[in-house]
Amino acid sequence: MANSAVKIHKRGEKTDQAEDSFVTVRNLLKQYGDEGVEAIKGINFDLERGTAVGILGPNGAGKTTTIKCILGLIVPTEGTVRIGDIDVLEDPKTAYQHIGGTFEGARNMYWRLTVEENLDFFAALAGNNPRERQARHEELLEQFDISDKADTVVRELSRGQKQKVTLACALARNADFLFLDEPTLGLDIESKLELQDVLKKLVERENTTVLVSSHDMDVIEEVCDRAIIMNDGEIIADDTVDNLVHLFEKTRYEITVDGECSDIRTDLEGKFDADGFKPHGSKGMQFRVTVASNEFYDLIDLLRNADLSIETIETVDTNLEEVFLSLTENSDDRRSATETDQSIASSGRRSHE
Ligand SMILES: Nc1ncnc2c1ncn2[C@@H]1O[C@H](COP(=O)(O)OP(=O)(O)OP(=O)(O)O)[C@@H](O)[C@H]1O
């Protein structure tokens, strides 16, 4: 796992724009009111064109504030946001031409118009002649598997279909940066899988840049290449979803050993969250433990020092949800370790930026 270094972001000035950056966020700070809370504390990140990035964090972490600043909906106290060559604060109108998407609870289309009429409207809004765009609109509807709904008024569509039409409308007006707030909220499993599929195609085929904010880890894990995890106004991790999952891989093992383990039971419970102890065979024991990938040899040593040999071992996988909880629950400890430039993982596999 040589590539499993989580890029932890430290607070500090950053001014350069990465070469391949499409959305560039620099030293973004937002304080609500003169004495109010610092909702975001000088954060930095880049979104490359044609990538899908998830933004995660517990309630109050600063996600909405960050996104509203990026979309030019609120003015940050400090910092800059660029979309392509456009400074969002200086020229929000031009920036808006690039942006499409959904805010949870907001109506993003005209519910009394048909799907086709909505596409025409949004195409016209971007200065396109809807008649010339007919083929493009058909292609979009086909891509999103809603061709049969072209003449249906939006208010009669299901929630999942409305989500798809919103995305199609954004593309009809040539938006190349989509922000999606809780895109799978309220969708049944089938619609959720379909929407995830549509989002993946969007990134691959249309080279669209997508930022997804969601508490649904499945959509982030399935659709996004990368995840930014926020807590208390700061970015506490920013890396590929694969790296995040691998680095924090904590595996649950069910182990049987060839003898009694009462002498080391307290150690197993304390260090490895062990439970489910029960006799196995004539003199062995079975139990379950949770072991991070860098702790595995500590477990083996503990068993060996107690003269125990492993007879069988079975595993269960980690997912992004566990990574998220592990990071946000321990972010204060992790931050202080980062600031003193110590390796958080004792294996030393993590690097700092
Ligand atoms: N208009 C406002 N006035 C004052 N404080 C605000 C305002 N909006 C947000 N805050 C505060 O800023 C902090 C970050 O809020 P924000 O809404 O950005 O978090 P979030 O990560 O989007 O949370 P959630 O997941 O609950 O939507 C919170 O402490 C919140 O109370």
UniProtKB/TrEMBL annotation:
Gene3D superfamilies: P-loop containing nucleotide triphosphate hydrolases (3.40.50.300). Residues 339-353 have a biased composition (Polar residues). InterPro entries: AAA+_ATPase (IPR003593), ABC_transporter-like_ATP-bd (IPR003439), ABC_transporter_ATP-binding (IPR050763), P-loop_NTPase (IPR027417). Pfam families: ABC_tran. Residues 331-353 are annotated as: Disordered. GO terms for molecular function: ATP binding; ATP hydrolysis activity. CDD domains: ABC_DR_subfamily_A (cd03230). It comes from the Archaea. Keywords: ATP-binding, Nucleotide-binding, Transport. Residues 23-257 form the ABC transporter domain. The keyword ATP-binding applies. Belongs to the ABC transporter superfamily. This is ABC transporter. It comes from Natrinema saccharevitans. The lineage of its organism: Archaea, Methanobacteriati, Methanobacteriota, Stenosarchaea group, Halobacteria.
